[in-house]
Design a protein that fits this description.
alpha/beta, seven-stranded parallel beta sheet
Length: about 300
């Protein structure tokens, strides 16, 4: 059976693991050809020094029903990004979906550390990885995306615009990075909207990425064992939940109604009706405000 994205071409920049991998797989499950990039390959690991590779992501995309194409790339390397987009243009002649999911800053920030005490080199590196990479990728990829009307750009961040506006996020550098990506989607919406394309910011909820599961000492199969340590983890979601949000946006002929907006996986699940892999619809950002930040006991009733 053909999926709703059959014949569509996507680029998921930063797809080695986490949300990027989940997004790539769900785009593949919807029938898309998905180019996936990252710095960790079977031949060489990034400074994360983790086992996930961009080739593995491409294989998962293909297994899901799409066509996965792995392209190792550092998105701070302008030549590499230009060559990547040229390759997509040569092989496909189009780009329908661009997902800017590059992050790479997991080991570069310290919690609740003021800017004058934070390691400056790490903070500046985090900003380059989380912000500059998105700008470089958009610069080279958007002319291709604009060749055909209806293109979609998804800027993946952490936190909705409303939540981040009023909430200090981790530290100066982290806060700035996530706010910048939100603003990128807003600015791109103004530039792309009149040209027939749509840009949105999208945040997962409390995502059970490979790194998060490892931090809690659990696997996806037994993730609920972590609730004894952190009861609010009950509202968490898989990376595929965010992937289904992107696939739903990409298949929506009226997606332009969201142009320039800040969206969340849980909020879009209410709009489109998709679920996480377990059949639930976790709404982490509503839960965070109404339960966790409000100091109430952990209770996901009505939130998943």
């Amino acid at each position: 059976m053909s999926g709703p994205l059959e014949g569509k071409v996507a680029l998921v920049a930063g797809a080695t693991r986490g949300a990027g991998r989940g997004i790539a797989v769900e785009l593949g499950a919807a029938g898309a050809t998905v180019y996936v990039t990252g710095r960790s390959t079977r031949a060489r690991r990034s400074e994360y020094d983790r086992p996930e590779t961009v080739e593995d992501t491409a294989d998962l995309v293909t297994a899901a029903g799409g066509q996965g194409v792995a392209v190792p790339a550092d998105h701070l390397d302008k030549t590499a990004v230009r060559d990547l987009v040229d390759r997509i243009a040569d092989e496909q002649g189009r780009l329908d979906v661009l997902v800017n999911d590059i992050w790479g800053g997991e080991k570069l920030f310290a919690w609740d550390t003021p800017v004058w005490e934070h390691d400056l080199d790490n903070g500046l590196r985090l900003l380059r990885l989380a912000v500059e990479t998105h700008a470089v990728t958009s610069h080279y990829a958007l002319p291709l995306l604009l060749r055909h009307p209806g293109g979609l750009v998804v800027e993946v961040t952490d936190g909705t615009a409303d939540y981040n506006r009023d909430t200090y996020r981790v530290n100066f550098f982290y806060d700035l990075a996530k706010a910048s990506v939100l603003r990128m989607a807003f600015a791109l919406g103004h530039e792309l909207g009149p040209r027939g394309a749509t840009a949105v910011a999208l945040t997962p909820g409390w995502m059970r990425s490979e790194i998060m599961l490892e931090a809690f000492g659990v696997r996806e199969e037994n993730w609920r064992d972590a609730l004894e340590r952190e009861p609010h983890f009950a509202v968490s979601e898989t990376p595929r939940f965010t992937g289904r949000a992107v696939a739903a946006l990409a298949a929506d002929p009226e997606v332009s109604r969201f142009n320039g907006q800040s969206l969340s996986s849980g909020g879009l699940a209410r709009v489109y009706g998709f679920t996480d892999l377990d059949g639930s619809r976790p709404d982490a950002w509503r839960y965070l405000v109404e339960v966790q930040d409000a100091g109430r006991p952990a209770d996901v009733t009505g939130y998943r």
